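Still learning. Show one?

>
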Amino acid sequence: MSIEHDTTSSKNQPASAASVEVPSNIQKQSLGQLLRGDLGFIPVLATFVAIVIYFQITTNGLFLLPVNISNLLQQIATTGIDALGVTLVLLLGEIDLSVASVGTFGAVVMGVLINYHGFSAWEAILCGILAGAIAGTINGLFIALLRIPSFIVTLAASIFYSGLLINLLKGQATLIIHDDTVLAIAGSSNSFLPDILGVGLPTVVLVLYALGLVFDQVARRRAGLRTKPLLRLIAQIVIAAVAVEGIVFVLENTPSTGGKFLGVPNSTAILFGLILIMWLVLTKTTFGRHIYAVGGNAEASRRAGINVTGIRIAVFTLCSTLAAIGGIVAASYANAVATQINPTLLLDSIAAAVIGGVSLFGGVGSVWSIVLGALIIGSLENGLDLKSQTTDVKQMVEGAVLLIAVTVDAVVRRLQARSGR
């Protein structure tokens, strides 16, 4: 039986109830229809702008001082790097509760090897990152092969590494780092890019980001897939360009206490470099497309021939590797490693990903989304610090923001499901 349609004759036939033809003139959308659509980064950006305006007013202009912006970017580096790993796991529809403890574990391994075993800085850093990768692989094996829920596996891992930290430091609460190479990452006056790199690298990343958006738009149009409205595409590129070049200008003209211009922090460059790499992996490789496929429908992916088990192991390995890198950056910034795990780092990392638009249900989100998410979380902490608010207030505010973000994500997905999107 033929399923072909005569397009010429169909013009003279009345439209059936099952017609899927898209009208050329799109009517004005109601609020419900708008919520069912893809608003992209606009709500998150609006939230960030509102936070900035609020703190700029209530701190009497302190919030947008160049020195505070530089401090803010350095403060969110670890959260952003950890959120990048969390994003990969969330794209699978899984969760990793061990990122904070594994990150601290990688940093402690580095510190112990430098201080007690005579390793060079780079050898110790590589061993710390490798320790994180091994921890992630173990998580992935339990989750992918033994089918144990990721919540249980990573919670157990978090508890285990919390104890292992105490064992490695032999009961010592803090181990001071004196190595200049490690401190130069994020913890000294030399932790800033030379001017030519501070200006050039962000511009290169910006150009690659814009070209990626344009090429993706063209490819989707050629494939007959739904594309972004042209105005939104242009706005996305323009806003990114203004934000990036504006921040670079501010950082390159931020004086230190000695009158020297600081520039772009190394930790910020590391964060955006990792985001760029993961973005290329997710959007330009088969492995990245398989991550989205498994997160969207694991069973369908398995039947399509995708190695679902391998994808899960690889993603949890990447997540813990990134956590170890984040831990090393945090250790450099603090000039020390410690047995005490940052109690809010896990919350902040998950919140940065979810607030940025990564779905907790898998298959939806972009690594670039963590930039705005991390900035929102970091701005809340930084602004509340400037207002001399206590830890309890900061945690309550962050928890409320996370709950709102998760609720919005769940509601929007239900609306989209009802409309068949």
Observations:
- Confidence is low (pLDDT under 50) at residues 1-39.
- The chain has two domains: 66-191+286-383+390-408, 192-264.
- Residues 66-191+286-383+390-408 form a domain with the ABC transporter involved in vitamin B12 uptake, BtuC fold (CATH 1.10.3470).
- The chain has 18 helices and two strands.
